Amino acid sequence: MHPRDQTIFALSSGRPPSAISMVRLSGPQAGAALTALAGRVPAPRMATRASLRDGSGRPIDDAVILWFPGPASATGENVAEFHVHGGRAVLTALFTALLAMENVRAAEPGEFTRRAFENGKLDLTEAEALDDLIHADTDRQRHQALRQLKGMLGERARHWRAQIIDASALIAAGIDFSDEGDVSSELVAPAMAKIRTLLTEIEEVLAAQGQSERLREGLVVAIAGAPNVGKSTLMNQLARREVAIVSPHAGTTRDVIEVQLDLDGYPVTVIDTAGIRETDDPVEQEGVRRARARAAEADLVLWLVDGDSAAVAGGGAVPMWTVRTKIDREAHQPEAGGFDFQISASRGDGIKELISAVVGFARDYFGSEEGALIGRERHRELLRGTADLLRRSIGAIDKCEEFVAEDLRAAADCLGRLLGRVDVEDILDKIFGNFCIGK
Q1: Which residue in 2, 5, 330, 416 has the most C-beta neighbors within 10 A?
Q2: CB-CB contact of 238 with 261 (8 Å)
Q3: Residue-level pLDDT at 81
Q4: Cα separations (Å) of 182 from 187, 189, 417?
Q5: pLDDT in tens, 115-128
Q6: Cα–Cα distance measured from residue 388 to residue 384, given in angstroms and rounded to the nearest whole number
Q7: What is the 3-state secondary structure (H, E, C) of the chain?
Q8: What is the pLDDT of residues 8-56, one digit of tens each?
């Protein structure tokens, strides 16, 4: 039996115990499951109270049920929902009753969304946006995921693909009428004009490629410096809780400690690294090695020095801010020369200014998410491939129109893979429908 002929179910709400749990079914047996457990199938999309009983007639729970007949459902199939009390025993009894039914099984991860995709309810970019929305930690990530879920990239890709298919049809017709020079040129010229316009649009999207992808991944800020300069204390100030051990003894932090923060809606991962110094301790040596490696991979490094140290020049590939710490221990406020910031992590002096600066850095780093469409490496690679093929087709137009047609077919295929929809019949339908070749 094909998996799509089976009915799947899963807990679609939070982990029990909870006040209410929602169990969803999708597939051809969803209506039969409702009838078997609740005694009836309620009116479509109307919440209905029902007493659920298992196959032996024993009560399971007093629940609310809903019925969404396909194709007007989230997956495009018949869908049923059971809203039950969220105790583990209730859910166990309900799952046991469902598993006893023929062709009903537990869903695999992502299987509901996959069925929605297979039934044309959403394309791949929207499915990925749904995953991003579920895992969004900040308001800006949520906003971006919602834009993608509305099909912002998918709509553009569908429009581009339709234009490429139009141009392919014109090129194919030009090849068929190649013996009639005027007719051929009249068809090829508008096709190549479409392609040049499309290439410009795709290149503009690629130029802003990093913004939404970076917002999805987050900004990484590494706190680095010599041992015992206040790195862990600053980490705790930023996290507003004790996530790192604070000790007057050098070399306390032996490994990399990470904490995820929401700074003005921007996702920021702050890393507290081991103090960088020469040491004979093999464990501390490994911590220093990891600290150097992690700082090299960061997007911004806060290099901390205490009152007795000199500022360290940056000059590397990663932006570095020098931060003078422990200014509360000095009799007079020190001069700011050579340092980007001066703070007292224990007392809080200068922390607000440092955080504001990091937020400003994040704002510049992420850019405006309104114009950014690319959220994943898969999107970027397929759009790059599409642009390369369009560029190649433009270069081949004076050499061989058959090569142009093949490049355009491959470009449409790239966009089809972006959306998860590849249909070679599209070009044929366009050719025969619009040009009536052979008449």
Answers
A1: 416
A2: yes
A3: 96
A4: 9, 11, 36
A5: 888 888 877 777 77
A6: 6
A7: CCHHHCEEEEECCCCCCEEEEEEEEECCCHHHHHHHHHCCCCCCCCCEEEEEECCCCCEEEEEEEEEECCCCCCCCCCEEEEEEEECHHHHHHHHHHHHCCCCEEECCCCHHHHHHHHCCCCCHHHHHHHHHHHCCCCHHHHHHHHHHHCCHHHHHHHHHHHHHHHHHHHHHHHHHCCCCHHHHHHHHHHHHHHHHHHHHHHHHHHHCHHHHHHHHHCEEEEEEECCCCCHHHHHHHHHCCCCCCCCCCCCCCCCCEEEEEEECCEEEEEEECCCCCCCCCHHHHHHHHHHHHHHHHCCEEEEEECCCCCCCCCCCCCCEEEEECCHHHCCCCCCCCCCCEECECCCCECHHHHHHHHHHHHHHHHCCHHHCCCCCHHHHHHHHHHHHHHHHHHHCCCCCHHHHHHHHHHHHHHHHHHHCCCCCHHHHHHHHHHHCCCC
A8: 999 988 788 889 999 999 999 999 999 999 999 999 999 999 999 998 9
Distance CA 113, CA 366 (A): 29
CA-to-CA dists, residue 204 to 19, 57, 199, 200, 294, angstroms: 49, 63, 9, 6, 33
DSSP lists the bridge partners of residue 267 as 262
d(CA 439, CA 437): 6
Q: What span, in angstroms and rounded, lies between the C-alpha atoms of 154 and 416?
A: 10
Length of the chain counted residue by residue = 439
Dihedral class, residue 47 (left if φ above 0, else alpha if ψ from -120 to 50, else beta): beta
What are residue 306's phi and psi, to 5 degrees? Answer: -90, -175
Whether the Cβ atoms of residue 215 and residue 262 lie closer than 8 Å to each other: no
Higher pLDDT, 185 or 109: 109
